[in-house]
Amino acid sequence: GENVEQHPSTLSVQEGDSAVIKCTYSDSASNYFPWYKQELGKRPQLIIDIRSNVGEKKDQRIAVTLNKTAKHFSLHITETQPEDSAVYFCAAMGGGNQFYFGTGTSLTVIP
Amino acid sequence: DAGVTQSPTHLIKTRGQQVTLRCSPISGHKSVSWYQQVLGQGPQFIFQYYEKEERGRGNFPDRFSARQFPNYSSELNVNALLLGDSALYLCASSLAQGGYQPQHFGDGTRLSIL
């Protein structure tokens, strides 16, 4: 089955700086890669996603890049704000239409 | 429109008991998936149902079972509860199965086993 690895596990940045979270996957059949933000005690919220036929996607301060050859994808958050503090999960949809999640990155934005 | 709703929000059981968790998908969504999220980890896939049929199963023992009803709501059943079953159980719905179908999560059921 699919194996998704996510790094780093914790990340602290100063407000206004950029944050980058990286994930790798193992199943070359995976073709859809969403990112979720989960605040403490709340549901995971979809923040951005990318399909395997696209290399980059941007939505305001958030962008995702995908390198299919290397089997890795990354989340980029620019101009970070305190409300960006949360746990972020990457995921990959494998060949069996199942979602496999990374272990999460706890992002802290320091005012 | 209401999002994915799950009930109950919290549940306390003892070892050996059985539990049923419920999920109502977003209106119009026909696919429901169940996940187990242990504290500090990412959600682990348990089941996916689409059009009332099981379409995927994760690496969980047979003590875990689920079903989907004609109105697309779903139940997750866990028998012979173990301490290790303590977790947040998340339900997610999507319009259909496969393809580029984003999943939308409910708030989860927090299950504690004593």
Q: First CA to last CA of chain A: what distance?
A: 41 Å
DSSP summary, beta strand count of chain B: 11
Low-pLDDT sequence parts of chain B: none
Q: What multimeric state do the chains show?
A: heterodimer
- Shape annotation of chain B: globular
Q: Please tally the helical runs of chain A, counting DSSP H or I stretches of 4 or more residues.
A: 0
| Head-to-tail CA distance between termini of chain B | 37 Å
Strand content of chain B: over 45%
Beta-strand residue fraction of chain A = over 45%
Largest sheet of chain B: 7 strands, mixed
Uncertain runs of chain A are none
Order of helices and strands of chain B: EEEEEEEEEEE
Q: What's the order of the H and E elements of chain A?
A: EEEEEEEEEEE
* Structural class computed from helices and strand pairing of chain B: mainly beta
Using the alpha-carbon principal axes, give the shape of chain A: globular
Question: Can you tell me about this structure?
Answer:
Chain A has strands at residues 4-7, 10-14, 19-25, 32-38, 45-51, 56-59, 62-67, 72-77, 86-93, 99-101, 105-110. The model of chain A has no long low-confidence stretch (mean pLDDT 93). Chain A is globular, with a radius of gyration of 13 Å. Chain A is an all-beta fold and 111 residues long. In chain A, strand 9 (86-93) and strand 10 (99-101) form a beta hairpin. Chain B is mainly β and 114 residues long. Chain B is built from no helices and eleven strands. In chain B, the strands form two sheets. In chain B, strands 2, 4, 5, 6, 9, 10 and 11 form a seven-stranded mixed sheet that branches. The termini of chain B are far apart. The model of chain B has no long low-confidence stretch (mean pLDDT 93).
Task: Provide the descriptors you would attach to this structure in a database record.
heterodimer, A: mainly beta, 6-stranded mixed beta sheet, 0% helix, globular, B: 114 residues, mainly beta, 4-stranded antiparallel beta sheet
